[in-house]
Amino acid sequence: MASDQAAASPAAFPLSRPLLEAVLADRVSDRFVCELIWPRLGYAPDGSGTWSAGPATGDAWRESFPIEPQFIAQRPPSVALTRAIAKQHKQLLKEQLGFAGYRIGELYPRRTRRATAVNWLLAHLAERGEALAEAGPLPPLLDQPADPVVGHPGDLPIS
Predict the structure, then answer these.
(1) What is the number of alpha carbons within 13 Å of residue 152 lying toward its C-beta?
(2) Which helix (H) or strand (E) holds 53?
(3) pLDDT in tens, the chain (159 residues)
(4) Is 100 among the domain residues?
(5) pTM above 0.85?
(6) How far apart are CA 38 and CA 97, in angstroms?
(7) Buried b vs exposed e over 115-135: b needs ≥16 C-beta within 10 Å?
C-alpha cells in the first residue's frame, strides 16, 4: 500500500473519529468523502475544479485514474481503493471504530463504498504510524439523505 500512496498534502482535511463516523452515517457529501482521499493519494486541484494526479501520485493510481477517481459514484475506483488496503489493515473499521457494518436494509453501494473509504483512511493512518485523533474539525454536517440510493443534492449517480 505504501508505494501506491503519497504523503498527505498540507491541504488534506484532518482525520478524526467524529469525522469518520460522520462519513459512515452519511452526514457529508460523496464529494467531500473523495476530497478526504484525493490529497492523500497525491491528487491536487488543477484550477479548473478538477483534481488531477500529481507528481506524488503513485504510478498505478496515475495510470488508472489520471483525474479524480470517484470512489463513491463509480465501482472501479472503489475496487482499487479496497485492493490498496493491506491485509493487516482490513479490519480497522471494526477494530478502531467498532463498526459492525450496515444492516440489511441499509446496504446500498453508496454506503458500502463509504465504509471502504473510511477503512482506507484508517489504513493510510496506520501505514504512516499515525493514531486517529479523538477530536478534530468537522465540515458542516448534512442531514442523512431522504433517499440513500440517490444521496445528497449534488452527489453523482452511482454506477
Answers:
(1) 18
(2) strand 51-53
(3) 433 444 444 368 999 999 999 999 999 999 999 999 999 999 999 888 899 999 999 999 999 999 999 999 999 999 999 999 999 999 999 999 998 887 777 778 999 999 999 999 999 999 999 999 999 999 999 999 999 999 999 999 999
(4) yes
(5) yes
(6) 22
(7) bbbbbbbbbbbbbeeeebeee
Place of cell 504510524: 129
DSSP-derived secondary structure letter, 2: G
78: number of Cβ within 10 Å = 21
Q: What is the CATH number of the domain that holds 25?
A: 1.10.418.90
CA distances from 157 to 73, 81, 85 (A): 6, 19, 25
Residue 151 within any structural domain of the chain: no
Residue 140 lies in a domain: no
How many angstroms separate the CA atoms of 90 and 49, rounded? 32
Cell numbers representing residue 132 in the block: 486517529
Q: Measured on CA atoms in the order 158, 114, 94, 64, is the torsion positive or negative?
A: positive
**C-alpha cell, 106:** 441499509
Identify which of 28, 85, 41 has the alpha carbon closest to the alpha carbon of residue 67.
Answer: 41
The reply to whether 141 falls in a domain is: no
The count of domains in the chain is 1
